[in-house]
Amino acid sequence: MSIVLSGIRPTGNLHLGNYFGALHNFKKMQHENECYFFIADYHSLTTHPTPADLHGNVRQVLVEYLAAGIDPEASTLYIQ
User: The pTM is what?
Assistant: First the structure.
């Protein structure tokens, strides 16, 4: 079993590129590996100087992780 660490910057709503480029793979890997998926909020501070915008985007990405099929029982999800 391998360890997987990956994340997405919460710069706005996720799109098909995020799904096919990352989330689809996260979903496949989570039951075969020890997975840690994060929301890279610190990396977004340069593009989202308003804390309220960043906070809303972090929450939205978390919801979208879950909607895409990331299982919090099988993977560790956290905010960076």
Answer: 0.85
